Request: fold
Amino acid sequence: MEMNQVRYFLAVCEHRNFTHAASASNVSQPSLTAAIKKLEDELGDALFIRDRAGCRLTALGKLMQPRLERIQSEAREAKAEAVRHTRLERVPISIGIGETIGHAKVSEAVERFRQRVPQAEIELIVDANDTLLAGLREGEFDLVISTVEVSEELYRIDPLYQEAYRVVVAKGHPLSELPAVSLADLADTTMLDRPNCEMREALHGACTDHGHTLYAAYRSNRVDWLVELARRGSGAVILPETSIPDHDNLVSLPVADMEIARDVAALRFRHQASRSETNELVREFSRN
Reply:
């Protein structure tokens, strides 16, 4: 079945006359008639009964009409989507974001970019790093924002920013009045643990080296859950700066005994062509 067959069939349905349908379709009547005959052969029976008044649908024709109308509608929508994509009326720049990346810098850069390219559309997908890198290699993402270390042979790496980790507690928590929090202070308080934190092993290793052990009463891979627990005074959570919400009941403090920071980068797969809009967006991220 070809799209011109569908179009000619629906034109005949509308005009109930082969001559008028051919004229409306800008095609000769013999060509339209041949296309309808080919469609009838494919479907196994006649679609129209022709008479002096014009033509009318057979039972098969009545059955096929709504189905072929849907096919034509879907085809038109697909073509319109392709045109919008090509003309940058709809540019789905797909960004994979590591699940521990704070939203503040990303959202600010995306909004600045859209002010310059208002017709662009942005898709933000948050997931685990392994899933994001697999999607990047498969072409599902234009770029990935992550802290994971990757091979420069496979990925183009654009450093974006470095951010420190801070201890987050509720106002009124015993740690909240300190100028900085030592590892000994952390060992003496209830911790809210993030198993997916990139600096978790380094932090626990530093504590062990100093003879301390951290105790976590709560564990979650979701920053928002741990922040809410911290806000309620349930314990202390260590978060990168951009993941710390601006909340009246929260206090963030530096870690005193060690430098704890991470580098955030934009990753692109070297075997995938990078569009100019993606390059501009990466430059916008780098302005942070």
About this structure: Residues 34 and 64 are 18 Å apart (CA to CA). The longest strand covers residues 155-170. The mean pLDDT is 87.
